[in-house]
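Here comes an entry:

___
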Amino acid sequence: ALCFAAKVKRVESDTLTDLDGFWNNNNIKIVYKNLIEQCINSPAVRRKTAQIESKTGDMPFAIIGKIENNSSEHIDTSIIENKFRNAIINSGAMNFVASRNERDYLREEKIDQQDSTADAKKLDNETAADYMLIGTVKSIIQKEGKKSVRAYFVDVQLVDIETNRILWTGEDDSIKKIVKKSKYKL
């Protein structure tokens, strides 16, 4: 029987690691930092945010929609969605409402509270989102022999939910990798 032992080396989370050329955590960091900065500093987003603030006295509310994976590899886009949400919340540029799945759990809890406590939370007191952030991750791969080039494109849009008007759109195409495959013996 053949046995393998794993040797693990811990590294700082910001250490650049890229073992196979596929999408990884470093790519996520690059993309969300670039795009969130563009989004919250967009003149159109700032204007609309100021309008909502003057009308309601509060920052606009946003929700993350779906970031779709249209690339040629498996990418867990929920990680990207969470990074976008956290970055926008922590920027102080917008408020956020819970996601569709989170709201379902919260509604179940409110229903459970209705019969059991005097201070039960109201069922019809939810805050609606003003904006939704949606997007896609795409890739292009070129191959020749043992060499390939992987290029990634992340497109996101901040959409006004009431009007379907796109307030801001951003693209990050800064991820491009040259991958050389080589044979080796274990």
The beta strands are 61-70, 95-96, 131-144, 147-160, 166-180. Helices lie at 25-40, 43-56, 77-91, 100-114.
